[in-house]
Amino acid sequence: MRGTVSTKLTDFLAQANSNIALAKQNNIQFTPTILRENLNKLSGLMSDSPAVPYIADKTLTLPDRIIPVRIYSPAPDKPLPVLVHFHGGGHMCGSVELYDPICRHLASIAQCVVISVEYRLAPEHPYPAGIDDCEQVLIRHAELLDDVKHQDSVTIIGDSAGGAICTSLSMKSLTDKRINIDQQILIYPSVDYTLTSPSLDCNGTGFLLETSRIKWYFEQYFQSTDADIIKKASPLFGPISAALPKTLIFTAGCDPLRYEGIAYANALTVAGVDVEHHSFDGMIHAYMLLHDLVKDECMATYQHIAKFMARV
To answer: Active-site residues: which are they?
Structure first.
């Protein structure tokens, strides 16, 4: 069933849909540069950016590469829970800078140390480069917190592609004991790369993120048409057991990824995982990047996260 969008987003979507139609009319093709620029424009809708006492840009140095991170703490002298953040953007867009207001809210409202990861992006760095970067930061995160007090517990959080990274790492943690995850927080996550979810049809046009763009994202990310590889990479079809971390998941009613998020939550519940699911029925994909338009919904999401983090 197609979602019914909130009136708060009517004007925004009218403009977005007009721009999409014009691009199609002029046969403007997707490129990484165009899509990255378009996503970055949403920064203008996140004017609410709270002050955080401790913010530091650091790097995790590996033998073959350096992974930049940004660390936030609302109270660097107080041992707080750790939240490792993986941004969204289809595995090929987004950045620590774009998500800076979100990470500030997470740190201040949920009272936690946030580590925001600048992982490598496709198509320059296809699957699984970005996941590998996030895995390394997760395993070695304590090295980055030498001047910040923190607890031993670790929660991971991601929206969209960031949610895909979270669930991929959770899946891997079942067999790789170097990966310790106490909880995962998923915001309209991408967990099915096979493009078979029914909401891709009913919500796949008119709500900002369109199915044609999702398909193009995945083509750039995998650079492969091997169905077995793509299905094996999809957390929805991977091993699901009670050993997976406690999960908080948010879905949006007008999101083409809605049903796969619900299917993942249901699969975890059946397996015996502790799952908390909230649906924002009038919201679209990426609503957290539209803070100025849907502030109540964004703040409600942060409050749910804060309560979840308080139970670590």
So the answer is: 160, 255, 285
